[in-house]
Amino acid sequence: MRPLRTAVAGLVAAGLLLAAPAAPARAADPYTFTNTVNPILGDGSYYSADLAPLVADGQLYVYTGHDEAGPAVNDFVMNEWGAFRTSDVAEGEWTHFPSLMRPEQVFTWATPGRAYAGQVVRGPDGRYYWYVPVSERDSTAANTFAIGVAVSGTPTGPWTDHIGGPLISQRTPTANTIENIDPTILVEGQRVFVYWGTFGQLRMLEFQADMKTPVGTQRAVTGLTGFFEASWLFKRGDTYYLAYAGNNAGGCTPAHYHACIAYATATAPTGPWTYRGTILSPVSSTTSHPGIVEFNGRWYLAYHTADAVGGGHFRRSVAIDRVEWDDTQSPPRIRPVVPTPPKQADRTPRANIAQGATVTVSNEPVPTQYWVKALNDEIVRANPLPPDMWGTWTGGNPPQQWVQYTWDQPMRITGSQIDFWNDQPQGTGVGVAAPARWKIQYWNGQWTDVPGAGGYPTGTQGFQDTTFDPVTTTQVRAVFDASTNGSTYSAVAVEEWKILAAQPATITPPPITVEVGENELPGSVPVTFGSETLQVPVYWDPITADQPGTLSVSGSVLGYAAGRVTAQVTVISPGDTEGDRTPPSVVLTASGSAGAAGWFRSSVRVRASAADDRGGRMRIVTTVDDGTPQTAEPVRSAEVTVTGDGRHTVTATATDRAGNTSPPVSRTVDIDATNPVSSAAVADRKVTVTATDATSGVDRVEYAIGTGPWTVYTGPVSAPDAAQHAVSYRAVDRAGNLETVRTVVIPADLSAPLNGNIGPIATATASYTAGWNSLTALNDDSDPASPSQAQIWGTWSGARPASQWIQYEWSRPVRLTGADIRFWRDVDQGTGNGVAEPSGWILQYWDGTGWQDVTGATGYGTSTTAFNRVTFDPVVTARLRAVISADGNGSTYSAVAVTEWRAFAEEPALTATAQPRCIAGKVYLAVTARNDHTAALDIEVVTAYGKRVFAAVAPGASVYQSFPARAVSVPDGAVTVNGTATTYPAHSCGG
C-alpha cells in the first residue's frame, strides 16, 4: 500500500534497550587506485552510496555505504560502511577502505544489514563520531530504525559504541513516528546539531559537547520545498546551508521516484530555513544524496549515481564534482552543479533509430511514477522501477493507449523491438498487463498499418520482435488495446521500444567544406534506398580545423548498422571573398509532428539552410510572422521554433562573407496541436456525443461499446441489451489530432426485480482513494487471494483520518437486505501506521434527506481473510454507505483498505396488470398487483395519475387501485410496481 523505500519491521513501541559496548570493529585491508573521472570507483568491483565527506588531517574522506544488491534485486542490500580517501581530488589517487564498520559488530543492540546513510564528524574532544542509522534488534516500535553513534580516535577506526543504545529512535529521547535515518551533523564549538528523517519528515535536535546528551526537545523542520530525505547541514561564512534530496522541489523531478538536490539557507543552525533552489538535476539512480565540503580551498559536491559498470538503482557509485558560488547574491547562492564527465551521444553503429526521435504519448500528462524518456533511452534493467518505463496506470484505465516517435526528417524503417512490463496476467482487467493486442502504424497523410507485419507478440520476457515491409515516414506509433476482463482494463507499460531502420547497401558521405575555426559539421548525409534518397542524421567525431587544408572525419549514421562512415573535410580561409558577387541560396524546411491536409500537430522547428558558392559561413536572419527578426552568425543554418495554433509565416534571408544577400524566402506553417474536445450525455440508456475543435475543425467522432470495434458515430448509441455497458468515444480533428479516449457508462436496465449482489452495477465513490489503489476494485466482482495494489481500494497517505467511507449509488431505489466487505491489511492493529483492519464499521442508507443507520444489523466483523457478512431489515434506497472507523494507537490512525464490497438485493416477484377503462365518459386506469413471494411485501404503484402504497401485502394476495385520468382519452403509457414497468395501450371514451 505504501511506496516504501525500505522494508520495515517491528510494530509496537518498547523500552530502551541498553547493552555493553561491543568490541572495536577493525577495517578491512585498504588499497590504492588512481581514477580521475566519475564515478570515483566505477569498474563495478564495489558499489558505494549514501556518501558523507569529511576533511581530516589535510585529507578528504568520503564515507559511504556498500551496495551489495544483485542486478535483479529491487532493495537496498547494505551490510557495511567504507570510505574513500584522497589528498588531491584532481589527481585522482584514492585509497579505498572497503569495510570500516558493520552495524552488528559495533552496536550489540542492532541487527545486521540496513547500513544506510551516516556521517562522520570530529567532536569538540578531537575524536571522530560516526552517526549511523541501524535497525534495533529487539525493538517492538512500528519502525525499528534508530540512530546510533560510534566513536574512534582516528578517521578510519577502530570504532566502538559511544552510548550503548540508540541516540534517536521512535521512543528516545522523545517519541516520534517517523523513520529515523539519514542523520547529518554540524559541530560548532561546543554545540552539536543533528538533523535526520525521510519521506518528507525532517527533525532536528541539539546535543551537548559529549555528542549524546540532548538539549531541549526534537522539532519538525519546515521551509524545505519538496524535501524527501538525505539532508546535509554545513556552514559557509555566516550562512548555514541545508542541502537535501528533493522530490519535485521547484519542479525538478520528472517522476516521483526521482530526486534532485535542492537547498535552503538560514542565519542560524536551527533555522528558520528559506528554500533557494536546486543544484543537481536527477541522476541515473532514482535516489540522490548530497555531501558538500570545502577541501584545499575548493568546494565539492559528492553524490551517487548508477553510472558504474553494471550499476543500477540499488548498485550505486559515488561521484564528486566542483561547487561554484555566486557571491554577488545575499546570501551567496550555490550555482547548479554540472556532472562530469559530460554525457556523449552513443556513436555505436546500430539499426535502432528510436533514440533520435521525439516521443509523444496518449496519456499526457504521464502518471508521475513513470517516465516517458525511458521509452527510447536504450536502457533495459533486469528488475525495473516505474521510472524505468513508460506506463499508463491510473486506477481507471481506458481501452486503448499509444506511443509515437517523430523524426525531423523522413526515415526508412522495417522493424520494431518492444519490451513490455507487467505485474498482472492478461485478462484480469486490473494492474499492468501486456496488451490484448497491438499494432504499428506509420504516417503517410493518415495513420496506416505498416504492411506485411510479421505478427505482434505480447510476451513480457525480453524484446518482442516485429518485422514489416519497409516504409518511409517521419512518424510511427504503436497502438495498444488494453487487456480486459470484460468490464475493466489493465494499464500498459513499456520499458523500451526500438525502431529498426532499413539498411542501405552502402553510405558514401559527400565532401564537407568548413572554415578555419569551424567545428560544426553537417547534421545529415544522403542515404540511398533504391530510387529514394533521404537525408539521415549523422553523429561526427570532433574535429580541429585550425588551418586551411584537408582532413578526414568519421561518424555514425543514425540506423546504419554496418559500421562507421568517413568523410573528407576541406578547411578554407574565411577571408577568401574577392570577386564574390553571387548571393547565397536559402531553403526552409519544417520539422514537427505532421498531420493531415498540410497541418502540423505540434510546435514546428523551421530550419533555414543557406548555401554559398564559396562554401563559407553566413549571417542568417529569420522572422516569424510580424515578430522581431533574429540574427545568427557565422552559421550555415539557423532554426526558429513556431508555436501556437493557427497559420504562421516564416521568412529568412542569408548574407555571405562578401555582403551578398539572398532574396527573402518564406514558408507558411499551419499548426493545430490541440486535441478536439468531446462530451457525452446518457439518457434513456442512449449515449449522445458532441465534439468541437477550434482550429482545423472536427473530422469525425468514433465510439466503441465495451471491447468492440471502433465505429464512426452517426447518432445516439443505444445499449445492445439490458446489461450495464461502458461506451468509449473520441474525436478526431481535420489535422489528425486524436482525442484521448473518454468513457461513459450506460447503466443496467433496472426495471426488472433485482436479486443477489448488485454492487457491480452501482456507481462507487469514496471519501479518499490512494493514487496507487483503485476505486473500481470495490465492485469489480473479483476477490483475488493475493491482490495487487490495483485490486484494492485503500486510503494510505501521510495524513490518515479516524474515519473513511465508501458509497454505492443505483439509478433507482432498490430493496437491500445485506452487504459484506472483505478488508485488507499490511500491519497489525494498534500501530497507528500502515494499513490495518478497522476498529469497526457501520452501514447507512439515504432516506431522501439524510443518512440513516440500517436497523437490525447482525454484526460488523473486521476480518481480512474472509467476507464480513451483515444482514439487516430490508430497506428501499438508491444509496448505501459503509462508514469505516480506522484503527489507531491513541495518537495516529492506520489507513483502511477493501478488496471487495458486495451489496445484496432481494426484490420479490410481482404480477401486475394495467388496463384503461371508461366511467361517465372519462378514462380511469385499473391496476392490479399480486405478491408472488413467500413473505409479506410492501407494494408501491406509481402512475402518471397518482400513486398508492399497500403495506404488508400477504403472500399470494392481490391489491387493486383505480386512478382517474380526468380526460376523455389517454395515450400509451406505463405504471411501475415496485420499480417494474407494466405498459398499457392508448384508450378513448369519446363517442
UniProtKB/TrEMBL annotation:
<keyword id="KW-0732">Signal</keyword>
<dbReference type="InterPro" id="IPR013783">
    <property type="entry name" value="Ig-like_fold"/>
</dbReference>
<keyword id="KW-0119">Carbohydrate metabolism</keyword>
<dbReference type="GO" id="GO:0045493">
    <property type="term" value="P:xylan catabolic process"/>
</dbReference>
<protein>
    <recommendedName>
        <fullName>Ig-like domain (Group 4)</fullName>
    </recommendedName>
</protein>
<keyword id="KW-0858">Xylan degradation</keyword>
<feature type="region of interest" description="Disordered">
    <location>
        <begin position="328"/>
        <end position="348"/>
    </location>
</feature>
<dbReference type="InterPro" id="IPR058094">
    <property type="entry name" value="Ig-like_OmpL47-like"/>
</dbReference>
<dbReference type="GO" id="GO:0004553">
    <property type="term" value="F:hydrolase activity, hydrolyzing O-glycosyl compounds"/>
</dbReference>
<dbReference type="InterPro" id="IPR023296">
    <property type="entry name" value="Glyco_hydro_beta-prop_sf"/>
</dbReference>
<keyword id="KW-0326">Glycosidase</keyword>
<dbReference type="InterPro" id="IPR052176">
    <property type="entry name" value="Glycosyl_Hydrlase_43_Enz"/>
</dbReference>
<keyword id="KW-0378">Hydrolase</keyword>
<dbReference type="Pfam" id="PF04616">
    <property type="entry name" value="Glyco_hydro_43"/>
</dbReference>
<comment type="similarity">
    <text>Belongs to the glycosyl hydrolase 43 family.</text>
</comment>
<feature type="site" description="Important for catalytic activity, responsible for pKa modulation of the active site Glu and correct orientation of both the proton donor and substrate">
    <location>
        <position position="182"/>
    </location>
</feature>
<keyword id="KW-0624">Polysaccharide degradation</keyword>
<dbReference type="InterPro" id="IPR006710">
    <property type="entry name" value="Glyco_hydro_43"/>
</dbReference>
<feature type="signal peptide">
    <location>
        <begin position="1"/>
        <end position="27"/>
    </location>
</feature>
